[in-house]
User: Fold this.
Amino acid sequence: MAKMSDVAKLAGVSTATVSRVLRNPDAVTPRTKQKVVEAIEELKYQPNMLARHFRRTETNTILVSVPNIINTVFAEIVGGIEDEASKNGYRVLLRNTNNQVDSEYSSIEHLKQRQADGIIMLSPKMDERLLEEISEQYPMVMATANLHSSKVPTVSINNVSSSKKATDYLIQLGHKRIGHITGRLDSIISKHRYRGYCQAMEEHNLPVDQNMVREGDFTYESGYKQMKSLLSQKTVPSAIFAASDDMAMGVINAAKHHGLKVPGDLAVVGFDNVKFSSIFDPPLTTIAQPLFDMGKRSMELLIKKLNNVPLSQTEYILDDELVVRASCGAEIEEGLIKK
Amino acid sequence: MAKMSDVAKLAGVSTATVSRVLRNPDAVTPRTKQKVVEAIEELKYQPNMLARHFRRTETNTILVSVPNIINTVFAEIVGGIEDEASKNGYRVLLRNTNNQVDSEYSSIEHLKQRQADGIIMLSPKMDERLLEEISEQYPMVMATANLHSSKVPTVSINNVSSSKKATDYLIQLGHKRIGHITGRLDSIISKHRYRGYCQAMEEHNLPVDQNMVREGDFTYESGYKQMKSLLSQKTVPSAIFAASDDMAMGVINAAKHHGLKVPGDLAVVGFDNVKFSSIFDPPLTTIAQPLFDMGKRSMELLIKKLNNVPLSQTEYILDDELVVRASCGAEIEEGLIKK
DNA sequence: TTGTAAGCGTTATCAC
DNA sequence: GTGATAACGCTTACAA
Assistant:
């Protein structure tokens, strides 16, 4: 494999000149540049990036810590990150944590060992104070995370207001016994979505009945199971707000298997607007998180940090949207919501 | 940031010894080792991996070229790759190609620039001869690809026999007008699946009617569109074999929107067994590709190549399986297939 | 504008 | 078993 010194020799110049041609061609006369370029082509020279990264102490690589790449929510965010990254000459190193905090720590180690220029953490589970500490020393951005503190730059939607919006919608359709399947309640996202649900209920003087609330873990299976549990009670909800589309689909299938019609006997609102939510039968009414954009935006912010551009804020709240489909039996007609 | 020489100084040894403690601790007396370890902890020394990679000319990173990470098929394979990689101390660098051949070439450049120790290509579209050439010089494995040649190690299922199996199943259920939605026919995978379909038909003396065959591109949308097209004809199929689950779901929804009952009026078999296929209504009968395992296996093979372990073969065919669910209206009962 | 040469932090080859 | 030192390939003061 040809190295820079080979190119230099063939072109009759020094390695410094070859390096300049590569890095900043205008600092060199057209003539020498020409010679060097020819030599590069002749030898099919490829710079040894390991040497370059070492010397420049940068990798052009950003690390993404993902709880689970198979989850379409994260896959879409990663898609957005990758898109923006490759447009800017960065590569994306993926780290699947499988929801293990240990794995998150080891991602941080990678960062400290300078194997990546920066990190984007998706829904981190690790200690918040530690996260802040690292964020002070290394370029870091978080996506789909709501920490208590706002020291770490975070891209998300407003999980409280969006959930309130979802619940409001069900109330507006006339529902009173509205159940909620939460995500794992050790996650702040889940707490916020729960809070939005509570706020909507309380504002309309509807009691938040703990018999109507179940803790899931964002998965289809947990939605299915918790709905079964709700259906085994004497009083049964007429509507469900699920904190994820996967759970909403579990809820609907559980209801169907129980002989209920959706939306006839049960209205369901999901959360995320993953691809399948529109394909599912019935298509899900859901809160659309701009997942791809969240990924893009996180990467944009990280690039700013990498270039020492000061960020004007630390919380970037993107717009969510209630996407109305058939799972609540409502149709938009002339701008009005009809049951 | 502390460097090795700092550790050496504090421990009162040379850098060579520190390096030894890190790489091969048994080549050092317990006493010196102890001193060095203490110094490392005291200084919170982290090796500079950029320097190490440069020096060792290896990165412990493998590159995965993915047509589209948002596609659950690929996401599951990547999940398997990541799993096996992290068990073996490798990191996974992701490159989303968005089905652009150019992007595949640029992944290869990364490899040549020694930014990764090896590469796994998922469904590559680039020139086959070039692929072979690169495979001779660099560690490379392919997954979900069937090339004509068998020089590049490839992990896949047998797309011909699996498709034949799927079609046979429909024939066995009594269907005669069986349609097929292919993937893009410039892909060998699609051609093989088509071939399996044809073989099954011909073996049962059923004509392969070109009016019953449509070219899709593996996406839900294409399945939907091509089914609409099939339904606009005078003679309409009674069953469809779709070359992907996404297309199968498109087919089913198109049929439903057209007023047909699935499986009552139309039986559908898909391909891939993505997570959502069992959640869909009706749950899809489909060919299960062991996606996660395919990822794992590809990584295993790549690790062998990286360690210069000779591979006994170049084609690794994993077992597929026909998963029978409700989309064909059949139920397994006492081991018998009933209509 | 171009060349010289030092240096990035680690590892490997020698001696001792 | 340990230490001195050269080397990996590129970048960058500094000198010319």
Remarks:
- The first strand of chain B starts at residue 61 and ends at 66.
- The mean pLDDT of chain B is 93.
- Chain B touches chain A through 45 residues (CB under 8 Å).
